[in-house]
From TrEMBL:
Family matches, as InterPro entries: OMP/PagP_B-barrel (IPR011250)
Name of this protein: Opacity protein
Keyword entries, A-Z: Signal
Species this protein is from: Enhydrobacter aerosaccus
Protein's UniProt keywords contain Signal: yes
Signal peptide (UniProt feature, chain positions): 1-21
Length: 294
C-alpha cells in the first residue's frame, strides 16, 4: 500500500515540466477556486497490521502450610513473541476539514487537512502459554518450573486523528497532492484470564489462583502520510480520493498485581504477578470523501 504514496508523488513531480511549459490557468479556467477552506465526510476501507507482539510474565510466590510460611519461590521466562492474526480490514467513517491555496501565478498549491476516522479493528490470539523456570528457598519444596497461561491477548485500533500539511498541483477541475504529519491514535490492549502454574514436588499446581485480567487504553502520538486526487463537481463541491498510512508510537504496558490462592490440603499461596505486554499496530486506508469548499 505504501507504493500508492510513491506513485502519486511521482505524478506531482512529473507534472512540474508542464507547469513551466505553459502559463498557469485562472480560477475560471480551472473550474476550481484559487484558494478555499473545505469540510467533508465519506467512507474508507482500512487495512490494519498488528504484527509481532511481546509478552513477559514473572511470578513471585510465598508458600504457606497451615498458615505458616514454609518457602518462597519465583518463576519467569524469556519474553514470548507472538503474532496477532496478521492484518484485519473493515470499513471506516471519515471526516476532514482543511485549506488549500495556489502559489502566485502557478498551478502548484499548498495546504493542510485535519482528518478523523474510526478504525475499530481488533486482532487476538487465544491460549497463549509462556514457559517459566523457577526456584524455591526451601529444599523440601522442589523448583517452581512451570508456565503461565493467558486465555486471550488482544489489541484494538480505535479512533484516529491526523494533521497533515500537503503540497500539490492542479489540473483541469482538480489537483493531486501528497503530505505527512503527526497522528493521534487510540490503541487498546488486554491480556485476559492469566493463571500461573508451577510444578511443586512433582505435581503441577495452580499457584496464582483465580484468573486475572489486565487492560490498557492509550492515546499514542505517531506518524501519518497521505496522497490523493481531487475532482471538483462544481466550483464549490469536490470529491477527494486518498490513500493514508499511519504508524502510532509503540506502547508497552506493565503488570504488577498481587494474588492469593487459598489452595487445598492446608497449602496456600500469595505473591505478585509481574510482567508486560506490547501494543504495536499500523494502518493503511483508502478513503473517498465529498467536500464543500468555501
Amino acid at each position: 500500500m505504501r507504493l500508492g504514496i510513491a506513485a502519486l508523488v511521482s505524478m506531482v513531480v512529473a507534472a512540474a515540466g508542464a507547469a513551466h511549459a505553459q502559463p498557469a490557468a485562472s480560477s475560471a479556467e480551472r473550474g476550481m477556486p484559487d484558494q478555499a477552506f473545505f469540510v467533508g465526510a465519506g467512507a474508507g476501507y482500512s487495512f490494519t497490521s498488528f504484527g509481532s507482539q511481546s509478552v513477559y510474565n514473572k511470578g513471585i510466590s510465598n508458600v504457606f502450610l497451615n498458615g505458616s510460611q514454609v518457602a518462597n519461590g519465583q518463576a519467569s521466562g524469556p519474553p514470548v513473541q507472538t503474532f496477532l492474526g496478521g492484518s484485519q480490514s473493515n470499513p471506516s467513517p471519515v471526516v476532514q476539514l482543511g485549506y488549500f491555496q495556489h502559489f502566485a501565478n502557478t498551478d502548484w498549491l499548498w495546504g493542510g487537512k485535519a482528518s478523523y476516522a474510526y478504525v475499530g479493528s481488533t486482532s487476538s490470539v487465544q491460549n497463549l502459554v509462556i514457559p517459566q523456570y523457577g526456584s524455591s528457598s526451601n529444599g523440601g519444596v522442589s523448583s517452581f518450573n512451570g508456565y503461565s497461561v493467558t486465555g486471550s491477548y488482544s489489541v484494538t485500533l480505535g479512533h484516529q486523528f491526523s494533521l497533515m500539511p500537503f503540497v500539490g498541483r492542479s489540473f483541469g477541475k482538480g489537483f493531486v497532492y501528497a503530505g505527512a504529519g503527526p497522528s493521534l491514535s487510540q490503541v487498546q490492549a488486554s491480556i485476559n484470564n492469566v493463571v500461573g502454574y508451577a510444578t511443586i514436588n512433582g505435581k503441577l499446581t495452580d499457584v496464582s489462583g483465580p484468573p486475572q485480567t489486565f487492560s490498557s487504553n492509550n492515546w499514542l502520538i505517531g506518524f501519518a502520510a497521505t496522497a490523493g486526487v481531487t475532482y471538483f463537481l462544481t466550483p464549490s463541491w469536490f470529491m477527494d480520493l486518498s490513500y493514508g498510512y499511519s504508524q502510532p508510537g509503540g506502547r508497552t504496558s506493565y503488570i504488577n498485581s498481587p494474588f492469593y490462592n487459598p489452595g487445598t490440603g492446608g497449602v496456600s499461596f500469595s505473591g505478585n504477578l509481574i510482567g508486560y505486554y506490547t501494543a504495536n499496530v499500523s494502518a493503511h486506508m483508502v478513503a473517498l470523501t465529498f467536500n464543500k469548499s468555501f
